[in-house]
Amino acid sequence: MHYLEELKQKIKDRLPELDVVIGWEQGFDPLRATPLFMKTPEDVDRLIAGPLCVHNLATHLTGLKGRKVGIIVKGCDSRTVVELLQEKLIDRGDVVVFGIPCSGVVSVRKIGRELGTLDYVESVDLSGDTVKVTSEGMEHSFALADVAADKCGRCQYRSPLLSDVMVGEIPDESATDDYSDVAEFEKLSLEERRGHWLNAMDRCVRCYACRNACPMCVCRDHCVAQSRDPHWMTQEDTVQNKLLFQIIHTMHLAGRCTECGECERSCPMSIPLLLLRRKMNKEINDLFDYRAGTCVDDIPPLQSFKIEEENITERGW
Amino acid sequence: MSADATELRIVGFLCNWCSYGGADTAGVGRFQQPTDLRIIRVPCSGRIDPLFVVKSLIEGADGVLVSGCHPRDCHYSEGNYYARRRLEVLKRFLPILGIDPRRFEYTWVSASEGQKWKTVVSKFTEHIHELGPAPRLDSEACAQAAAIALQGL
């Protein structure tokens, strides 16, 4: 990426005043990036940026509260930072946001589905809009749009909404999001929907990766999934319990979820978790005309009220 | 309500200051009411975590009724305003899970409205009886869902 050198230089310039800067580096194979915590200029040299940098790094911000942190954000990640600031979970003065433009990130799962296996990925070549993956001696070529994460196809925030330091050119194209995937799912009958979730939740292994990856899950040691007082969840692996946990997760994110998709990406059982979050966001949007993480001064809708609600009709009997 | 119909499990979360009083007024007034509702008294409708409702529905309640003070009448000034937003969001969220949103209802009844309480309970119970017992969400239902999914392949 042509802005990478500029980004590295800007991080090195700011590094002396910061405890750590969070970015991405090459993971265990060429296809996968992993979070990088930069403390010295040598660390900065390992930085990479581009369509393989999938992680929403804002997940680490609340854990580093009280320290001076730099963070690299794509457009979608910036919404999370805004939402965290809105809820005063992080301090604006402690965070330096390095913004990069983004034209989509790859979904490793989609590539894996095309290739059949991701055990031996020898090299990945990214040029323009194509992704070339060499695996077990075979070269496969994909259009970035075909293997991009679902969220990228409806992305309206290709450049960060909030940044202290911005590199790269701002792409002007932006998609629309009409929640058609939610509408499509809702065409199914109640029984089919119920069956779909029972089936999906039956796979759940309760690893809580969805919770741990979620940047807005901030209860930490007090998470209802493990708390015994109140004892919301049992340790049984019944499908009710697992479904209940996902509903709790969704309810706790109502009006706060920025749809970064980390829950779904981190799920080892490929449970379509984002659909629940998106349904919730669709309703929040319809009721309160609100999208999480778009304006630092907004108050999340469930933390406020209006005496006369515009879109809630009084219940008559 | 006919006397011979089997009772269903309906959970009612009532606020201490208005709706519980309203239900009491209905009782003192000796109004005929269906007996399916199990009342849980909470200090305020703002105390009702939407998860109370979800947990009830998932663990086998056939219907859930939440009732609080009318907006502007809250004992704690603004509890029911927050409740109104949360409960409305919850009601709109239920369909995607395959839970019939008609199984959950929220309303406002004041302490003096014994007659209204009677109407609310009777109507809601009637609705739930029309819908019948709620489909179970246990492992058996899960196996059935898996079998249906396999047939579709």
From TrEMBL, chain A:
Matching Pfam families: Fer4_8, FrhB_FdhB_C
Source organism superkingdom: Bacteria
Alphabetic keyword roster: Iron, Iron-sulfur, Metal-binding
Keyword Aminoacyl-tRNA synthetase in record: no
4Fe-4S ferredoxin-type domain: residues covered: 194-215, 248-277
Residue ranges of the TM segments: none
InterPro entries: 4Fe4S_Fe-S-bd (IPR017896), 4Fe4S_Fe_S_CS (IPR017900), FrhB_FdhB_C (IPR007525), Helical_ferredxn (IPR009051)
Name this polypeptide is given: 4Fe-4S ferredoxin-type domain-containing protein
Taxon lineage: Bacteria, Pseudomonadati, Thermodesulfobacteriota, Desulfovibrionia, Desulfovibrionales
TrEMBL record, chain B:
Highest rank taxon of the organism: Bacteria
Listed InterPro entries: MvhD/FlpD
Pfam family, one: FlpD
Keyword Oxidoreductase: yes
Residue span, F420-non-reducing hydrogenase iron-sulfur subunit D domain: 10-132
Keyword line: Iron, Iron-sulfur, Metal-binding, Oxidoreductase
Name recorded for this polypeptide: F420-non-reducing hydrogenase iron-sulfur subunit D domain-containing protein
Organism (species): Pseudodesulfovibrio portus
Origin organism lineage: Bacteria, Pseudomonadati, Thermodesulfobacteriota, Desulfovibrionia, Desulfovibrionales
